[in-house]
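With this grant's support, we have settled on a layout for protein records. An illustrative entry appears below exactly as we store it:
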Amino acid sequence: MSNPTSLFPFQPSTMSTAQLAAVSYLARYPGQTHSLYASQLRRWFAWRGLLQV
C-alpha cells in the first residue's frame, strides 16, 4: 500500500497560510481557468519569494 501523503502534490504541514489559501482557491476552478490561475499564483509566490515578503 502506498504512503497516504503521496496522494497529495503538496504537504499541508509545510505550507504557509497563504499557500493553503491558494490551494483552496484553485480547487474550485476546472480546466483552463485552473491552469491559468495556478500559473499566475506560481509567478506571484516566486515574486514574493524574491522580495522575501
In short: The longest helix spans residues 31-51.
